Amino acid sequence: xxxxxxxxxxxxxxxxxxxxxxxxxxxxxxxxxxxxxxxxxxxxxxxxxxxxxxxxxxxxxxxxxxxxxxxxxxxxxxxxxxxxxxxxxxxxxxxxxxxxxxxxxxxxxxxxxxxxxxxxxxxxxxxxxxxxxxxxxxxxxxxxxxxxxxxxxxxxxxxxxxxxxxxxxxxxxxxxxxxxxxxxxxxxxxxxxxxxxxxxxxxxxxxxxxxxxxxxxxxxxxxxxxxxxxxxxxxxxxxxxxxxxxxxxxxxxxxxxxxxxxxxxxxxxxxxxxxxxxxxxxxxxxxxxxxxxxxxxxxxxxxxxxxxxxxxxxxxxxxxxxxxxxxxxxxxxxxxxxxxxxxxxxxxxxxxxxxxxxxxxxxxxxxxxxxxxxxxxxxxxxxxxxxxxxxxxxxxxxxxxxxxxxxxxxxxxxxxxxxxxxxx
Length: 424
Fold this sequence. Notes:
alpha/beta
């Protein structure tokens, strides 16, 4: 029986081209000095190393540096992942009994935050595109309509960008909410790289969000579980309340290795991101042009979306629908035939996470693999997929508030259960 380490080491040898999180891509931007000292810097709280629960020296300086770079009033290092950051953000901004707008395809940590904080959701349902098999972003019109229907709402939680890189019009949504004295908090987990390049969308903070969360391990060269919680410069959220919530939720043993990774990852982005993202953008645009000319695989970007919504070019989403195979099948072909590991797949699409840690050479290799897959014959494939296989998240009416429902007894039903079908 292999140890976990040996199993992961063996897997890493198969994972030749990484287009998935974490964004450090094997740490290729890091110096040997950092890599060699990982165990040495895994320390605990002393006078010299500061204390994240009450930072006053080096950790305070590191957080202030990050706040300046990201344009925040305050920035907090989180070593327990953005799930905790999102919980702290929601519970820090809203009170027990408050009602807030929540996009229905939010991360599960949002629902956890509602349960922990006794906060009630008013769900916004993003448009589902059956042709593309993806959800669009929440629109400002949806927010405006929900506010008219529910004037007691205290604010909104918006996921932007989505997992597919699609961004809401945060600026307009912020203006609508702020005009009615409501708060906007944003799960910007997949957009930590936006601030570092003019080729990427504006950040939630630049667009007026009161609070936002970024999973720096997803798109920056940072280790897994590294996250940032930002406070907007004009935010009216209580800093003392937010910090009290953070001290309640966050571990009392934060990893100095992870915190160093956050600080170092931001420094590396400042040094390398502008030129690297510029080169990657040009390479990706050329690749997309060739794919469109071949007309065998579709690209999910602004031109294919129903709404006029922004999208990160570094979140490459390809649809294999024209080939008659699913995204799952295409993902398997990439893994087994080329050693290319994508971030995710769905019924039609494959999602590739591209970061400043990737190289233009890697994009060339991805392009060559995609070209080979696109000329294959899949007429006898058992994987043939049609739009009839697609279902979207059903709209729901809450019988109980999330915090009440969590404490109730429950029954597990199979998807094919008559009892379940009768309830839908």
